[in-house]
Design goal:
Elements lengths: L4 H4 L3 E2 L2 E2 L3 E3 H15 L2 H10 L3 H21 L6 H22 L5 H9 L2 H7 L2 H20 L1 E3 L3 H25 L1 H10 L2 H4 L4 H17 L12 E2 L9 E8 L25 E4 L1 E3 L5 H9 L9 H5 L4 H7 L3 E6 L12 E4 L9 E2 L2 E2 L2 H12 L5 E6 L33 H27 L6 E8 L4 E2 L5 E2 L9 H4 L3 E5 L1 H4 L4 H8 L2 E3 L1 H10 L2 E2 L23
Parallel strand pairs: 3-4, 6-13, 6-14, 8-18, 9-10, 9-13
Antiparallel strand pairs: 1-2, 5-19, 7-17, 11-12, 14-17, 15-16
Helix pairs in contact: 2-4, 2-5, 4-9, 5-8, 6-12, 16-17
The structure holds zinc ion.
Zinc ion binds next to loops.
Length: 553
């Protein structure tokens, strides 16, 4: 059956349009061509940019098209063809939107991050423009596939016909690959992102990989860690050590004036006696990777989702040492970090002072901090997991008094705003976080007569704001731009803890490289925890502690 047969077999009968008949191979090829042509804008624009040799680009594109068509034909069997083609169309249409609009790459970590996203966060991505895109490029072609009547042959005839189409297509695909093997190998080796944007095979493959991995991860039990932990001794004053770890969200170091950004985005922190670490890299580019990695004793090089699940983390080790731990959640969950710790959720607090549409500003946590501090009984660590600067609805991340950089981009469809207004809005979220951190410090400082307080702030990852056409975060680490991996790290110590650290040494250390690898050991050091899993070299304060401090050194 020829391609023309689709239109030629649409007779009218008794006023109704009869369902057109189409051969299964033809339908598979038409669908494959549609997907290649209409859902691979990012793939082809990158391929065009990366290939110097346009003949090799042609061979690469044509070869891939043949191989993809062969794959689609392989599924063109009764009962399977329509669900598979529709799955491909819908996956491709949605993946194409996020790739084309935000420069996103749909790898396993991106899918994991999407899977843990709250409905209110996801709601910001489901915009009218996205729905229109899905209607035109996903629903409409899917309805067409549903509507047509597929003509199938009997099994043996179908096998013969399908192989007659598949074998030559595969041979052509291989021949195309061989003809430009050197160019293709060099481009795909240098530009690892290229093949990751091939739609819909990579997104579907990664989704399958995620489901299989999730299933395999289901029964993993966290092995005990640092069960020998104990606090070295009381502070010189006998006051309990209190550490607040603020786990930031989507704050990038590039937009912190503490790190040299041209705009004043840290007006409150700069007035406090803080130390800003300016060369800090994140473990991942998404919450689902960075947060469990930050709290684990695994370095970035050894971290994997499974390895993270298979071991206890910082909070458990602190617990083994007899320190009270608590996790306050105003984001998408603790990513299993607080599985064995007291957890309090703020994201659905419904407090009209701070909350709207199932999302709460981080002030909701600050509001409760005094009550928590009043009940301190002994050494304690509190984690505040911020909503921070989570996009794309940056304009909903702060109160009107922080709308200081204008004009703002007052929509989640940031592609419709000019870049400067997106940056303005993002910078306002940093102003708000600056205020949140200053509030934590002020509340801790106000109680120095009864506690020995400190605060660590580290963002989980950064954000792209349109640099090289990239938005949001979640790029594969190997190709991620610095905006997504260079994160702010702020340290504040109360007078007692500060007295045990050499100030000049700390200032020097703050200008050197640091990373999420340091959080686990720095927090243990600040809480004076002795354990075999503590590595002084990874504690950013270790080399700067004065010998008489009694803390780890
Ligand atoms: Zn995050």
């Amino acid at each position: 059956m020829s391609v023309n047969s689709l239109s030629s077999s649409v007779p009218r009968s008794s006023g109704r349009i009869a369902r057109p008949k189409i051969d299964s191979i033809t339908l598979a090829i038409l669908t494959a061509l549609y997907l290649i042509a209409f859902t691979n804008r990012t793939f082809f624009s990158r391929a065009f940019e990366y290939f110097d040799n346009h003949l090799a680009l042609l061979a690469f594109s044509f070869g891939l098209t043949c191989l993809f068509a062969a794959l689609a034909i392989a599924f063109s069997v009764k009962y399977l063809i329509k669900p598979v083609l529709i799955l491909m169309i819908l996956s491709a249409a949605s993946a194409a939107w996020f790739m084309d609009q935000f420069g996103a790459i749909i790898d396993v970590n991106m899918i994991r991050n999407a899977a843990i996203t709250t409905s209110s966060e996801a709601g910001h991505l489901i915009t009218p423009a996205f729905l229109l895109h899905m209607a035109v490029f996903g629903i409409l072609p899917s309805l067409l596939v549903c509507w047509v009547k597929v003509q199938h042959r009997n099994f043996l005839a179908k096998l013969r016909w399908n192989l007659t189409a598949i074998v030559p297509l595969v041979l052509i695909g291989i021949a195309c690959g061989i003809s430009s093997a050197r160019s293709i190998a060099s481009v795909t080796r240098i530009h690892k992102d290229l093949i990751l944007t091939f739609n819909p095979l990579l997104p579907i493959g990664n989704a399958v990989g995620f489901v299989l991995a999730s299933e395999a991860d289901r029964n993993i039990v966290a092995a005990p860690l640092g069960t020998d932990a104990k606090v070295a001794g009381p502070t010189p004053s006998g006051k309990p050590r209190v550490l607040v770890i603020v786990t930031g969200e989507t704050a990038r170091a590039e937009n912190f004036s503490l790190g040299g950004y041209g705009r004043e985005t840290n007006p409150e922190l700069k007035k406090r006696d803080i130390t800003y670490f300016s060369q800090v890299s994140s473990c991942g580019t998404a919450t689902a990777v960075s947060v469990p990695c930050m709290f684990s004793n695994l370095k970035r090089s050894g971290y994997s989702h499974r390895a993270g699940l298979a071991s206890e983390n910082l909070l458990d080790v602190l617990g083994h040492a007899g320190i009270t731990t608590e996790w306050w959640e105003n984001n998408t969950g603790s990513q299993n970090v607080a599985n064995r710790t007291v957890m309090r959720s703020f994201s659905n607090a419904n407090d009209p002072r701070f909350c709207k549409s199932n999302e709460c500003l981080d002030d909701a946590m600050i509001d409760q901090l005094d009550t928590w501090l009043s009940n301190i009984k002994g050494d304690s660590v509190l984690v505040l997991h911020q909503l921070g600067s989570h996009g794309p609805a940056y304009y909903q991340r702060y109160t009107p008094e922080f709308a200081r950089f204008t004009p703002e981009c007052s929509t989640a469809e940031i592609g419709n705003c000019d870049r400067q207004s997106v940056v303005n809005t993002y910078d306002n979220t940093i102003l708000y976080t600056d205020h949140i951190l200053a509030s934590v410090i002020d509340k801790l400082k106000a109680r120095e007569n009864s506690i020995d307080p400190a605060m660590i702030y580290m963002s989980d990852h950064g954000e792209s704001l349109g640099e090289n056409g990239l938005y949001l975060h979640g790029a594969p680490y190997i190709i991620a731009p610095s905006q997504q991996t260079h994160v702010p790290f702020v340290l504040w110590q109360g007078a007692e803890m500060k007295a045990s650290v050499d100030a000049g040494c700390l200032t020097k250390r703050a200008g050197e490289e640091a990373s999420h690898d340091n959080l686990f050991h720095t927090a243990l050091g600040m809480m004076a925890v002795k354990t075999s899993v503590y590595t002084p070299q990874l504690d950013v304060l270790s080399a700067c502690r004065t010998p008489a401090s009694g803390a780890n050194s």
